[in-house]
User: Which sequence fits this backbone?
Protein backbone atom coordinates (compact mmCIF):
# COMPACT_ATOMS: atom_id res chain seq x y z
CA UNK A 1 0.00 0.00 0.00
CA UNK A 2 1.45 3.35 -1.03
CA UNK A 3 2.09 5.78 1.77
CA UNK A 4 -0.20 8.80 1.49
CA UNK A 5 0.94 12.37 2.09
CA UNK A 6 1.93 13.18 5.65
CA UNK A 7 4.68 15.30 7.13
CA UNK A 8 7.27 13.23 8.96
CA UNK A 9 7.71 15.78 11.68
CA UNK A 10 5.94 16.70 14.87
CA UNK A 11 3.57 19.65 14.76
CA UNK A 12 1.85 19.37 18.14
CA UNK A 13 2.10 17.71 21.54
CA UNK A 14 -1.06 17.11 23.56
CA UNK A 15 -1.19 17.04 27.36
CA UNK A 16 -4.21 15.84 29.36
CA UNK A 17 -4.90 18.06 32.36
CA UNK A 18 -7.61 18.41 35.02
CA UNK A 19 -7.64 22.19 35.16
CA UNK A 20 -6.76 23.86 31.89
CA UNK A 21 -6.92 27.42 33.24
CA UNK A 22 -4.38 26.71 36.00
CA UNK A 23 -2.08 24.71 33.75
CA UNK A 24 -2.23 27.35 30.99
CA UNK A 25 -1.26 30.00 33.54
CA UNK A 26 1.67 27.92 34.78
CA UNK A 27 2.93 27.19 31.26
CA UNK A 28 2.57 30.86 30.30
CA UNK A 29 4.66 31.90 33.32
CA UNK A 30 7.41 29.41 32.48
CA UNK A 31 7.43 30.30 28.78
CA UNK A 32 7.23 34.05 29.38
CA UNK A 33 4.09 34.30 27.25
CA UNK A 34 0.61 35.70 27.93
CA UNK A 35 -1.95 33.10 29.05
CA UNK A 36 -3.73 31.81 25.94
CA UNK A 37 -7.46 31.89 25.28
CA UNK A 38 -9.30 28.80 26.55
CA UNK A 39 -11.54 27.30 23.89
CA UNK A 40 -14.00 24.43 23.97
CA UNK A 41 -14.43 21.77 21.31
CA UNK A 42 -17.68 21.85 19.35
CA UNK A 43 -20.70 19.77 20.39
CA UNK A 44 -21.07 16.37 18.73
CA UNK A 45 -23.48 17.54 16.01
CA UNK A 46 -20.82 19.96 14.74
CA UNK A 47 -17.60 18.14 15.68
CA UNK A 48 -19.02 14.73 14.64
CA UNK A 49 -16.86 13.27 17.37
CA UNK A 50 -16.50 9.49 17.22
CA UNK A 51 -14.78 7.35 19.82
CA UNK A 52 -14.21 3.66 19.14
CA UNK A 53 -16.47 3.97 16.11
CA UNK A 54 -19.45 5.45 18.00
CA UNK A 55 -20.66 9.05 18.19
CA UNK A 56 -19.85 10.58 21.58
CA UNK A 57 -20.94 13.84 23.20
CA UNK A 58 -17.43 14.15 24.72
CA UNK A 59 -15.96 17.63 24.60
CA UNK A 60 -12.81 19.22 26.00
CA UNK A 61 -11.46 22.60 27.02
CA UNK A 62 -8.27 23.44 25.12
CA UNK A 63 -5.39 25.91 25.37
CA UNK A 64 -2.60 26.23 22.81
CA UNK A 65 0.94 27.57 22.94
CA UNK A 66 2.37 28.04 19.46
CA UNK A 67 6.15 27.61 19.76
CA UNK A 68 7.51 27.73 16.22
CA UNK A 69 7.11 24.39 14.46
CA UNK A 70 5.49 22.76 17.47
CA UNK A 71 2.43 23.68 19.50
CA UNK A 72 1.65 22.52 23.00
CA UNK A 73 -2.04 21.68 23.42
CA UNK A 74 -3.51 21.43 26.91
CA UNK A 75 -6.68 19.30 26.97
CA UNK A 76 -9.15 19.18 29.85
CA UNK A 77 -11.73 16.44 29.18
CA UNK A 78 -15.30 17.30 30.14
CA UNK A 79 -16.64 13.77 30.64
CA UNK A 80 -18.33 11.23 28.34
CA UNK A 81 -16.38 8.50 26.54
CA UNK A 82 -13.20 9.71 24.82
CA UNK A 83 -9.50 8.94 24.69
CA UNK A 84 -9.00 12.16 26.66
CA UNK A 85 -11.24 10.99 29.51
CA UNK A 86 -9.81 7.46 29.42
CA UNK A 87 -6.29 8.72 29.84
CA UNK A 88 -7.18 11.09 32.68
CA UNK A 89 -9.01 8.27 34.48
CA UNK A 90 -6.30 5.66 33.93
CA UNK A 91 -3.10 7.70 34.11
CA UNK A 92 -3.92 11.12 35.52
CA UNK A 93 -2.46 14.27 34.02
CA UNK A 94 0.02 13.19 31.38
CA UNK A 95 1.31 13.56 27.84
CA UNK A 96 -1.35 12.23 25.45
CA UNK A 97 -0.28 12.42 21.80
CA UNK A 98 2.11 13.75 19.22
CA UNK A 99 0.63 15.09 16.01
CA UNK A 100 1.69 15.08 12.38
CA UNK A 101 0.05 16.97 9.49
CA UNK A 102 -1.58 14.95 6.74
CA UNK A 103 -3.26 15.56 3.37
CA UNK A 104 -6.22 13.28 2.69
CA UNK A 105 -7.58 11.92 5.96
CA UNK A 106 -9.40 8.91 4.50
CA UNK A 107 -6.34 7.61 2.64
CA UNK A 108 -4.16 8.19 5.69
CA UNK A 109 -6.56 6.33 7.99
CA UNK A 110 -6.66 3.41 5.57
CA UNK A 111 -2.86 3.38 5.37
CA UNK A 112 -2.29 3.51 9.13
CA UNK A 113 -4.97 0.86 9.71
CA UNK A 114 -3.21 -1.42 7.21
CA UNK A 115 0.00 -0.93 9.23
CA UNK A 116 -1.75 -2.22 12.37
CA UNK A 117 -2.40 1.30 13.66
CA UNK A 118 -6.17 1.64 14.10
CA UNK A 119 -8.29 4.74 14.54
CA UNK A 120 -9.41 5.41 18.11
CA UNK A 121 -11.14 8.82 17.93
CA UNK A 122 -11.88 11.43 15.30
CA UNK A 123 -13.59 14.77 14.97
CA UNK A 124 -13.98 17.98 13.01
CA UNK A 125 -12.97 21.51 13.99
CA UNK A 126 -13.28 24.85 12.23
CA UNK A 127 -10.84 24.59 9.34
CA UNK A 128 -9.98 20.93 9.55
CA UNK A 129 -10.21 17.55 11.24
CA UNK A 130 -8.21 15.26 13.50
CA UNK A 131 -7.87 11.55 14.08
CA UNK A 132 -6.14 9.79 16.96
CA UNK A 133 -4.37 6.60 15.98
CA UNK A 134 -3.80 3.94 18.63
CA UNK A 135 -0.04 3.56 18.33
CA UNK A 136 0.39 2.17 21.84
CA UNK A 137 1.42 -1.38 21.00
CA UNK A 138 3.52 -0.57 17.91
CA UNK A 139 4.90 2.95 18.53
CA UNK A 140 4.50 3.48 22.28
CA UNK A 141 2.08 6.42 22.06
CA UNK A 142 -1.02 7.85 20.42
CA UNK A 143 -0.43 9.59 17.08
CA UNK A 144 -2.70 12.40 15.97
CA UNK A 145 -3.25 13.04 12.29
CA UNK A 146 -4.17 16.67 11.67
CA UNK A 147 -5.63 17.91 8.40
CA UNK A 148 -6.22 21.57 7.62
CA UNK A 149 -8.57 22.44 4.76
CA UNK B 1 14.27 35.55 40.36
CA UNK B 2 15.41 36.31 36.81
CA UNK B 3 14.65 33.68 34.23
CA UNK B 4 17.87 32.12 32.93
CA UNK B 5 18.49 31.29 29.27
CA UNK B 6 16.30 28.58 27.81
CA UNK B 7 14.63 28.16 24.47
CA UNK B 8 10.86 28.37 24.73
CA UNK B 9 10.32 25.67 22.15
CA UNK B 10 10.30 21.91 22.09
CA UNK B 11 13.43 20.17 20.87
CA UNK B 12 12.68 16.55 21.79
CA UNK B 13 9.90 14.19 22.82
CA UNK B 14 10.74 11.11 24.87
CA UNK B 15 8.74 7.86 24.74
CA UNK B 16 9.21 5.01 27.23
CA UNK B 17 9.16 1.60 25.52
CA UNK B 18 9.80 -2.02 26.50
CA UNK B 19 11.57 -3.05 23.31
CA UNK B 20 13.50 -0.26 21.65
CA UNK B 21 14.60 -2.33 18.63
CA UNK B 22 11.03 -3.28 17.70
CA UNK B 23 9.66 0.22 18.32
CA UNK B 24 12.51 1.84 16.36
CA UNK B 25 11.77 -0.46 13.43
CA UNK B 26 8.05 0.39 13.54
CA UNK B 27 8.72 4.16 13.71
CA UNK B 28 11.26 3.91 10.88
CA UNK B 29 8.70 2.13 8.68
CA UNK B 30 6.01 4.75 9.38
CA UNK B 31 8.40 7.67 8.87
CA UNK B 32 10.05 6.18 5.77
CA UNK B 33 13.49 6.41 7.40
CA UNK B 34 16.22 3.81 8.01
CA UNK B 35 16.13 2.25 11.50
CA UNK B 36 18.40 4.33 13.75
CA UNK B 37 21.38 3.07 15.72
CA UNK B 38 20.49 1.84 19.21
CA UNK B 39 22.75 3.37 21.85
CA UNK B 40 23.02 2.79 25.58
CA UNK B 41 23.45 5.45 28.22
CA UNK B 42 26.80 5.53 30.03
CA UNK B 43 27.35 3.69 33.33
CA UNK B 44 26.84 5.70 36.51
CA UNK B 45 30.54 6.55 36.98
CA UNK B 46 30.54 8.35 33.62
CA UNK B 47 26.92 9.52 33.38
CA UNK B 48 26.82 10.51 37.08
CA UNK B 49 23.15 9.60 36.99
CA UNK B 50 21.16 10.81 39.98
CA UNK B 51 17.55 9.94 40.67
CA UNK B 52 15.72 11.67 43.55
CA UNK B 53 19.06 13.08 44.70
CA UNK B 54 20.82 9.69 44.90
CA UNK B 55 23.30 8.10 42.48
CA UNK B 56 21.68 5.26 40.53
CA UNK B 57 23.14 2.57 38.25
CA UNK B 58 20.05 2.92 36.03
CA UNK B 59 20.76 2.90 32.32
CA UNK B 60 18.60 2.87 29.21
CA UNK B 61 18.76 1.87 25.56
CA UNK B 62 17.95 4.81 23.28
CA UNK B 63 17.02 5.41 19.65
CA UNK B 64 16.60 8.85 18.07
CA UNK B 65 14.70 10.11 15.04
CA UNK B 66 15.80 13.63 14.12
CA UNK B 67 12.82 15.30 12.44
CA UNK B 68 13.81 18.92 11.88
CA UNK B 69 13.42 21.00 15.02
CA UNK B 70 12.14 18.07 17.06
CA UNK B 71 13.64 14.67 17.76
CA UNK B 72 11.74 11.61 18.91
CA UNK B 73 13.68 9.67 21.56
CA UNK B 74 12.73 6.08 22.31
CA UNK B 75 13.85 5.01 25.79
CA UNK B 76 13.98 1.41 27.02
CA UNK B 77 14.81 1.38 30.75
CA UNK B 78 17.19 -1.36 31.86
CA UNK B 79 16.15 -1.60 35.52
CA UNK B 80 17.33 0.14 38.72
CA UNK B 81 15.62 3.25 40.10
CA UNK B 82 14.91 5.94 37.51
CA UNK B 83 12.05 8.03 36.20
CA UNK B 84 12.21 5.85 33.09
CA UNK B 85 11.67 2.62 35.05
CA UNK B 86 9.03 4.23 37.28
CA UNK B 87 6.96 5.27 34.32
CA UNK B 88 7.21 1.88 32.59
CA UNK B 89 6.16 0.16 35.82
CA UNK B 90 3.32 2.55 36.62
CA UNK B 91 1.97 3.46 33.18
CA UNK B 92 3.44 1.06 30.62
CA UNK B 93 4.75 2.28 27.30
CA UNK B 94 3.90 5.97 27.07
CA UNK B 95 5.08 9.48 26.32
CA UNK B 96 7.56 10.53 29.02
CA UNK B 97 8.85 14.08 28.53
CA UNK B 98 9.21 17.10 26.32
CA UNK B 99 12.61 18.76 26.19
CA UNK B 100 13.80 22.35 25.89
CA UNK B 101 17.38 23.54 25.36
CA UNK B 102 19.02 25.55 28.13
CA UNK B 103 22.27 27.46 28.74
CA UNK B 104 23.59 27.11 32.28
CA UNK B 105 22.14 24.03 33.92
CA UNK B 106 22.73 25.10 37.54
CA UNK B 107 20.96 28.46 37.14
CA UNK B 108 18.11 26.79 35.28
CA UNK B 109 17.64 24.14 37.96
CA UNK B 110 17.59 26.82 40.65
CA UNK B 111 15.06 28.83 38.66
CA UNK B 112 12.72 25.91 37.99
CA UNK B 113 12.98 24.75 41.60
CA UNK B 114 12.00 28.25 42.75
CA UNK B 115 8.92 27.98 40.49
CA UNK B 116 7.84 24.81 42.31
CA UNK B 117 9.29 22.56 39.60
CA UNK B 118 11.85 20.30 41.30
CA UNK B 119 14.59 18.15 39.77
CA UNK B 120 13.77 14.44 39.57
CA UNK B 121 16.71 12.95 37.63
CA UNK B 122 19.90 14.19 35.99
CA UNK B 123 22.88 12.86 34.14
CA UNK B 124 25.75 13.57 31.76
CA UNK B 125 26.23 12.39 28.19
CA UNK B 126 28.98 12.93 25.65
CA UNK B 127 28.71 16.61 24.77
CA UNK B 128 26.23 17.71 27.39
CA UNK B 129 23.87 16.97 30.24
CA UNK B 130 20.16 16.57 30.95
CA UNK B 131 17.83 17.13 33.85
CA UNK B 132 14.25 15.96 34.22
CA UNK B 133 11.99 18.39 36.03
CA UNK B 134 8.90 17.06 37.78
CA UNK B 135 6.26 19.21 36.11
CA UNK B 136 3.41 16.80 36.81
CA UNK B 137 1.44 18.84 39.32
CA UNK B 138 2.02 22.26 37.72
CA UNK B 139 2.43 21.58 33.99
CA UNK B 140 0.97 18.09 33.50
CA UNK B 141 4.18 16.42 32.32
CA UNK B 142 7.90 15.97 32.88
CA UNK B 143 10.10 18.67 31.32
CA UNK B 144 13.63 17.83 30.24
CA UNK B 145 16.28 20.52 30.25
CA UNK B 146 19.01 19.74 27.72
CA UNK B 147 22.38 21.51 27.69
CA UNK B 148 24.96 21.02 24.95
CA UNK B 149 28.53 22.09 25.69
Assistant:
Amino acid sequence: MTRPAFETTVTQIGIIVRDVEAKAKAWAAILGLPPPEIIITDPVDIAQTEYQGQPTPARAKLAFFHLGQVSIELIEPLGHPSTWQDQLTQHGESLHHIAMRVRGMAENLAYFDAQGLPLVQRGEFTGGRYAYIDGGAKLGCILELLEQD
Observations:
- The beta strands of chain A are 12-16, 39-40, 50-51, 54-55, 60-67, 70-77, 94-101, 119-125, 128-133, 142-148.
- The longest helix of chain A spans residues 20-31.
- Chain A touches chain B at residues 3, 8-10, 13, 15-17, 23, 26-27, 29-33, 67-70, 72, 74, 91-98, 112, 115, 117, 136-141 (CB under 8 Å).
- DSSP finds five helices and ten strands in chain A.
